Amino acid sequence: MSGFTYSLVKSIIKTGLYGYHKKIMVSGLENIPKDKPVMFLPNHQSALIDVLLIATDCNRKPFFLTRSDVFKGKLLKRIFSYFQMLPIYRMRDGRDTLSNNDAIFNSCADILNRGEALLLFPEANHNLRRRVRPLSKGFTRILIRTFERYPDLDVTLIPVGLNYKHADQFPDEVAIIYGKPISAKSMYNASDLNMTSRTIKNRVSLSLKQLTTHIPTVDNYEHIINRLTSDKVDFLNPVVVNKKVELYADEVADDFKSITEINNRKGLRWMFTILNFPFIMVWRKYLKPKVPENEFMGTFRFAYTLLIYPVYLLLLFIVLFIFLSSKVALLVSVILIILNVWFLKKGLR
């Protein structure tokens, strides 16, 4: 991919992300080496939004491992390959497809040997629950293959904590925290590959549990979430939240009932809806019901906003220009943009 095209697409998506989110906080960029092989290992909650947030702010140009079922048709394959996306095959894709991963692992090893970056999700699935799930051995297999092919190479692992306030709602806030670098080679034992895999997974998992909210108990999960929500904790600060989780872990769920917070900004939300009525109604009535899972809600909503909102503004301008005047059309469009930015950053939630 040419540097100009990559930079252009990256700038468009980054502008869209910062316009779509009420707040994006990024920390730990100093932990990312500039000229060494890197493997970014984030927790996974919000489908494609997770990928875009890291890709636009990590100061590297990473390759992405992507589930193979999206590589359908020659056109999509070309597009995904152009944007440095590599297919990864899972059991659900068919046992006979797993052999394709061998060539992908070799490609990943070659990418790392060139000093480039890989981004993949070690949990191997996405879920909105605020906990770090058991890590898959897929990323450790790539590392082991890399060390087998290039014995003198080291790979820097960068755990990444993605922390959303409300990943399936709008507008949302997110904190992206890049953790301390981890040397993968220091944990590699050629005579015991199983131990190598377990050691690397445990180290990365422990780091992720410090970089994002981690509620370890399944049975008591809803109780702890209710307590955190009631206390209005800042989910953008996982260190503080995890201390609260430890305090709540031993409480009996039946001793506490969550309190539903009354939304005192309904009037502002209604005003926002009226100002953008056609655009919002198309989303709510026709597109939102088709989103397959809540984990994809942010991704679909962001894509709809990025692609359709400029069209909505253009059509509004044209209608006002035809029936009123160019000055009125321009004035209304500018005022609408300013109001929407205010609603997004200050007025809503």
From TrEMBL:
A biological process from GO: phospholipid biosynthetic process
InterPro entries: GPAT/DAPAT, Plipid/glycerol_acylTrfase
SMART domains linked to this entry: PlsC (SM00563)
Descriptive protein name: Acyltransferase
GO function term, MF aspect, one: glycerone-phosphate O-acyltransferase activity
PANTHER family cross-referenced by the UniProt entry: GLYCEROL-3-PHOSPHATE O-ACYLTRANSFERASE 1
Source superkingdom: Bacteria
Residue stretches making up the Phospholipid/glycerol acyltransferase domain: 38-165
Pfam family, one: Acyltransferase
Membrane spanning residue stretches: 267-287, 299-322, 328-344
Keyword entries, A-Z: Acyltransferase, Membrane, Transferase, Transmembrane, Transmembrane helix
